[in-house]
Amino acid sequence: MAGALKVSLVAVSNGELIGHVAFSPVTIDGAACGWFGLGPVSIRRDLRGRGIGGALIRAGLQSLRSHGAAGCVVLGNPGYYRRFGFEADPAIRLEGVPPENFMRMPFNGSNARGVVAYHPAFSAP
Fold first, then answer.
1. Is 103 helix (H, G, I), strand (E, B) or coil?
2. CA angle, 30 then 35 then 40, to 5°
3. Angle CA 27–28–31, to nearest 5
4. Nearest-CA neighbor of 24 among 42, 43, 1, 52?
5. In angstroms, rounded to a whole number, what is the distance separating the alpha carbons of residues 116 and 121?
6. pLDDT of 123 above 80
7. Alpha-helical segments (H) within the chain
8. Tens digits of residue pLDDT in 49-88
């Protein structure tokens, strides 16, 4: 679907794809607002735990910042995503998801509030 990804990065080793991260636009309360959703992140199973995913996430976040994004949200394990600066905030939420598992990272002091919706390409039918 056109416009589904803003940033898509891959990790390659010896000519083989070993990891991928994507960032897609999200809306907040139905409006485009310069925020993006992180995910999916995928790393080849036998190479997990070596920092590949973290490096991809950091590079993607930097790319978003350099393109003037207002912020990023992620649905996932707080223990993992907090290390990048994500934190739960009840003011920004994803319907049907425990608030502690939906986190945000504002850029440049942006303070989004409301209900987040991912790009239709990432929504259940």
1. strand
2. 100
3. 65
4. 1
5. 14
6. no
7. 52-66, 78-81
8. 999 999 999 999 999 999 999 999 999 999 999 999 999 9
Instruction: Measure the CA angle with vertex 88, ends 125 and 58; round to 5°.
Output: 85
Helix (H), strand (E), coil (C) string for 56-109: HHHHHHHHHHHCCCCEEEEECCHHHHHHHCCEECCCEECCCCCHHHEEEEECCC
- Across the range 11-29, mean pLDDT stands at 96
Whether 119 and 73 have beta carbons less than 8 Å apart is answered as: no
- Per-residue confidence (pLDDT) for residue 108, from 0 to 100: 85
Task: Determine if the peptide bond prior to 78 is cis (ω within 30°).
Answer: no
Please identify which residue in the block is written with the tokens 């990790």: 11
Residue with structure tokens 């991928």?
20
